[in-house]
Amino acid sequence: VLQNLAGEWFSNVSKKQITPPERKIPQGSVIDKPIDQVQKKLNRANIEVVSVEEYDPVKAKLNLKNFASAPTNLKENSRVVLFQENGKVKYYALAEKGPAGVEDLRSKIFVQTERITEVANLQETKNAEIKGLHDEVVKLRDQLETVKIEDLRTKVNTQETQIAEVKGLQDEVARLKMQLQTSQEEQKRTIAERDREIASLQASVKEFRKVSTDLTALRKQVNLLRRGGNS
After folding, report:
1. Sheet containing 48-54: which strands, arranged edge to edge?
2. Rounded-to-integer distance, Cα 197 and Cα 19, Å
3. Please, are residues 159 and 218 in contact by the beta-carbon 8 Å criterion?
4. Do the bridges between strand 24-26 and strand 73-75 make them parallel or antiparallel, or are there none, so unpaired?
5. For the stretch 12-23, what's the b/e string if a residue is b when 16 or more beta carbons lie within 10 angstroms of its beta carbon?
6. Coil, strand or helix at 20
7. Which residue, 12, 124, 135, 194, shows the most beta carbons closer than 10 Å to its own?
């Protein structure tokens, strides 16, 4: 018998040691706090918020009675009614318990509500992750489009520079021709040498004109692409 009593004593002590401490919410964590934050905090502590009612200063006697009878710490599995004013908890009161069957049903509903809340929070987190990924894809796509436009803009600027260079050469050729015409009699040898230079330059001009024509065609294609992009 002594051995059995000792075994039972040891079993009870072990159970007490491994039993987790009861969750409590102090009054200071509820009073004058935003109503939505309080509801979430109570749900996490397995405390059911039966209802949220507006604080009525006209019911001063009832308010004082409810406040005085409310415990300073809300224990796990409690059921409370919150009285709010301007979005904050003014005070709270313990809700009256109903028949056993109703309490059991309420407990099950409370558990299911907690599960639904957890699923909703998980879904909200996943939605936020999906939105973040979508925003990142849009950002990368915009960056790619920017790179393409900048590359095309660089090519156009390069072509415009080459066209300017060709025009500059054409102007230089015209100037040389005028100089040759004014000094033909005095510098025949120079004229002959310069004629050869002119011939070479004309060949270059012809090549540059060809390049200019190609550049003009390319510019038209670029303009068409821009119009197509804007539309």
Report:
1. 48-54, 79-85, 88-94
2. 105
3. yes
4. antiparallel
5. eeeeeeeeeeee
6. coil
7. 194
Tens-place pLDDT, residues 11-57: 554 554 444 444 788 988 999 999 999 999 999 999 999 999 998 88
Cα 206–chain centre separation: 57
For residue 94, give the 3-state DSSP assignment.
strand
Please name the residue that has the structure tokens 């000094």. 183
| CB of 97 closer than 8 Å to CB of 78 | no
What is the distance of C-alpha 146 from the center of its chain? 21
The predicted pLDDT at position 33 comes to 94
**Cβ 72 vs Cβ 26: under 8 Å:** yes
User: Integer distance in angstroms from the first to the last C-alpha of the chain?
Assistant: 95
Residue 66 is which amino acid? N
Burial category of 156 from C-beta neighbours within 10 Å (exposed 0-12, middle 13-18, buried 19 and up): middle
Contact indicator for 77, 47 with CB cutoff of 8 Å: yes
Instruction: Report the candidate in 124, 134, 110 with the shortest Cα–Cα distance to residue 47.
Output: 110
CB 42 within 8 A of CB 25: yes
161-220 pLDDT, tens digit per residue, is 888 888 888 888 888 888 877 777 787 777 778 888 888 888 888 888 888 888 888 888
Return the closest-CA partner of residue 72 out of 44, 33, 32, 31. Answer: 31
Beta carbons of 72 and 47 less than 8 angstroms apart: no
Q: What type of residue sits at position 111?
A: V
Query: Which amino acid is residue 126, in one-letter code?
Result: K
CA angle 163, 168, 169 (to 5 degrees): 100
User: Which two three-digit tokens encode residue 46?
Assistant: 């397995």
